[in-house]
Amino acid sequence: MTRFLPVAAMTFLALGTNPSPAVDLTMIDRSIAKEPAYKSKPKYCLLVFGPEAKNRVWIVLDGEVVYVDRNGNGDLTEVGERLTQERPVPEQKFPTISLSLPGEENRQIHLQLTVHQLRFEGEDEEGPHPDVTIRIDGQEWRSYCEQFTNRPQEAPILHFDAPPTFLLSNHQQRTFVPGKTTNLLFYTGLPGLGKFTFATRRARDLVGAGAELTAEIEFPNKEPKEKPIRRWVTVPLDDTCDGNVFAGAVRVPEDAGFGRARMTVIRMPNLTPAVFLIPVEKSRGK
After folding, report:
1. pLDDT (tens digit, 9 = 90+) per residue, 189-222?
2. Residue 6 pLDDT greater than 60, yes or no
3. Chain-wide mean pLDDT for the chain?
4. Of 63, 153, 229, 257, which has fewest CB within 10 angstroms of its CB?
5. How many CB atoms neighbour CB 235 within 10 A?
6. 167-180 pLDDT, tens per residue?
7. How far apart are CA 244 and CA 236, in angstroms?
């Protein structure tokens, strides 16, 4: 079964957006202390937890079963870490389980995993994608992730349980165009490591109903010797999407030049600031 990415939230400015990450996920150790004897070729994904991503939970897909490092000690051979699918491909569903992570034993952490066999837009071929929902003390995180990989050293990394920031979707328009209006769509959550890889929290749960995102945009000036053009914009919470996102339109100045606009989203309650670099280009097709 071949499918293109169906959900708008799953495409972002290639993390060509530039939200400031809480931790450098490229520095995470992607080794596994002990693995079981697999029946098929294993597929790897790594979850990390906390502001410093100190707790690591491996998910390894082995055909009809999955191994989850429930206590985060790197040993996938322990009792209770082998789960059998409740529903077969193309959408494998596995039992919801609890996690007990180092230093977090008194917290309620639950993991729900579904594996989708599909192909995201831009991927060469169909493959298994992990769909992970994490509930921590009643707070829900939803994730989107690239395919499992064949080697742990290349595994995508999903980040949970750290201060959320802003994630800018590109499903409507990837660029600013001078004199035109661009629709912006922001999710709230954490970037991961890997294409299409990130975790989200519902915006309304973080900031309350009726909130507005405020940002400063610095556009390049079409006159090279003139100062950049600065605009302040507000983007309201969109309750038509169950309060998941901020959505609104931005009018690009006629005298904006080509290059990259710098968009700085200021701090809101429970959300850290973010900076995005958005291309300013000619209208497509011209």
Report:
1. 999 999 889 999 999 999 998 899 999 999 999 9
2. no
3. 89
4. 153
5. 22
6. 987 655 578 999 99
7. 11
To 10 degrees, the CA torsion angle through 196, 11, 252, 274?
-40
Rounded Cα–Cα distance for residues 230 and 232 (Å): 7
Parallel, antiparallel, or unpaired: how do β-strands 165-169 and 181-191 relate? antiparallel
Cβ-based neighbours of 169, under 8 Å, separated by 6 or more: 8, 9, 11, 12, 185, 186, 187, 245
Q: What count of other Cβ atoms lies within 10 Å of the Cβ of residue 286?
A: 6
Length of the chain: 286
Task: Give 195's contacts (C-beta < 8 A, 6+ positions apart).
Answer: 14, 120, 122, 146
